[in-house]
Amino acid sequence: MDVVVPEEVEKEKEESLEQEGGERGASPEKEKKRFFYSKKVCRFCTGQIKKEEVTYKNVELLRRYIMPSGKILPRRITGTCTKHQRVLVAEIKKARILALLPFLAR
Ligand SMILES: [Zn+2]
């Protein structure tokens, strides 16, 4: 009779983690708030702003999406989704041509 010896298979896990830099003791949770903007949700998708409202005539709305200098705010700041940003930008450009919005404000 063969004696069955339970084989203990030990897998040697060699986790060699190479630490690349980061040994300066800098805390990763350190974040600087560069700009203050409210929550990033597409206001057009959520229904806060209706599709019909996005026209070149609605200067007050469009003005919220441009900088004081007249530049169009990027999506990452306003939180507008790609689809609606494109519509928005098109309307802003129309408004600019009609001199409702500035190309460049001083
Ligand atoms: Zn959207």
Task: Explain what you see.
This protein is an all-alpha fold and 106 residues long. It has a domain at 51-97: 30s Ribosomal Protein S18, CATH 4.10.640. Helices cover 24% and strands 0% of the residues. The protein contains three helices and no strands. The chain has helices at residues 59-63, 75-78, 82-97. Zinc ion binds next to helix 3.
Task: Kindly summarize this structure in a few lines.
It contains 3 helices and no strands. It is mostly helical.
Task: Note the main attributes of this structure.
106 residues; 30s Ribosomal Protein S18; 3 helices; elongated; Ribosomal_bS18_sf; small ribosomal subunit rRNA binding
Name of the CATH superfamily of the domain at 51-97: Ribosomal protein S18
Mean pLDDT: 79
How far is it from the N-terminal to the C-terminal residue, by CA?
A: 97 Å
Radius of gyration: 28 Å
Helix content: 10-25%
CATH topology of the domain at 51-97: 30s Ribosomal Protein S18
Largest sheet composition: none
> What would you call the shape?
elongated
| H and E string | HHH
Would you tell me the structural class of the helices and strands? mainly alpha
Bound molecules: zinc ion
CATH class of the domain at 51-97: Few Secondary Structures
CATH architecture of the domain at 51-97: Irregular
Q: Into which percentage range does the β-strand content fall?
A: under 5%
Function: Binds as a heterodimer with protein bS6 to the central domain of the 16S rRNA, where it helps stabilize the platform of the 30S subunit.
GO cellular component, one term: cytosolic small ribosomal subunit
Protein name: Small ribosomal subunit protein bS18
GO molecular function, one term: structural constituent of ribosome
